[in-house]
Design brief:
Shape: globular
Largest sheet: 8 strands, parallel
Strand content: 5-15%
Mean pLDDT: 97
Number of domains: 1
Number of strands: 8
CATH class: Alpha Beta
Structural class: alpha/beta
Order of helices and strands: EHEHEHEHEHEHHEHEH
Number of helices: 9
Radius of gyration: 18 Å
CATH topology: TIM Barrel
Length: 276
């Protein structure tokens, strides 16, 4: 399987071409860039253009862009008004968040990418048909805007009642948007289980987020190599291999400050997973 890495592993630092060069040197052929003001500021034209020059000269491809989740630099801790939520029921605020995501999609005009990774709602959000109506209105508009720029929107199974595998399928049946998915194995492990959620989402999975956790907290641990994780990676890899060529092996990990060479450790994770 093609190896891919999310920049989530350095998301608390400004994204630099030097980090991308290390990824390239490790033989990782594709990346997902995570939109966050402190990391990749989708509104900072100079940063985007600098990265664009690098990608034009590199063999590494930009597989996907993760849509922004917050407008502040501290993961929404400055207040709920910084949480980007396309299911917002107040129309004016919902349109504001749609506008933010459109600005992120415009990155494709400088750095072409295939997929935009989008959440339905925020962590812990309860289910409501009203929220789904708002999500449909947002995604109907974003779908057209993204398609005009060669981008496909993928929905992610996340940790709320709107975005379980079953609810994503319900959303697609109800709205007829027929959007494809990114399968997050760590989120599935905390929720209904990797085998269960993968089985529901399987036919529409176009990308992955692979990371480990203790089954309770969204820890984004290094698969196999972090002994506190509880995912059965041998079973998980057996499932993932049932769809050859459908998606790359994408790691979405947390930063470990004391780790001296994280990209080198990530290369070892790929070897471990491929050996299972």
């Amino acid at each position: 399987m093609e190896k891919a890495l999310s920049s989530h592993v350095v998301v608390n630092h400004r994204l630099s071409t030097s980090w991308l060069q290390r990824v390239e040197a490790a033989g990782i052929g594709a990346v997902e860039l995570f939109c966050a003001p402190q990391h990749l500021n989708w509104r900072d034209k100079s940063q985007v253009e600098d990265l664009g020059h690098w990608f034009r000269d590199s063999t590494v491809k930009l597989h996907s862009l993760h849509a922004p989740m917050f407008t502040d630099e501290i993961w929404g801790r400055s207040g709920p008004d910084t949480h980007i939520n396309i299911t917002e029921r107040a129309k004016a605020l919902r349109l504001q968040w749609v506008g933010e995501i459109k600005r992120a999609i415009e990155v494709a005009e400088i750095i072409p990418f295939r997929y935009l990774i989008q959440h339905l709602g925020v962590n812990g959000q309860e289910y409501s048909d009203y929220f789904l109506d708002s999500a449909f209105s947002s995604l109907e508009e974003l779908y057209v805007f993204a398609r005009q720029r060669g981008v496909e929107i993928l929905l992610e199974n996340t940790l709320n009642d709107l975005s379980t595998a079953e609810r994503l399928e319900h959303f697609n049946r109800t709205t007829h948007l027929n959007l494809n998915y990114v399968f997050d194995a760590g989120h599935a492990h905390i929720g209904a289980g990797i085998e269960n959620e993968f089985g529901i989402m399987k036919q529409r999975i176009r990308s992955l987020h692979l990371h480990d956790n203790n089954g309770k907290e969204d820890q984004h641990l290094f698969p196999v190599r972090d002994q506190t994780g509880t995912v059965d990676w041998k079973a998980a890899m057996k499932l993932l291999r049932t769809c050859p060529g459908q998606y790359p092996l994408m790691l979405e990990l947390r930063e470990v400050p004391e780790m001296e060479n994280p990209v080198g450790e990530i290369a070892k994770v790929f070897k471990d997973l491929e050996a299972l």
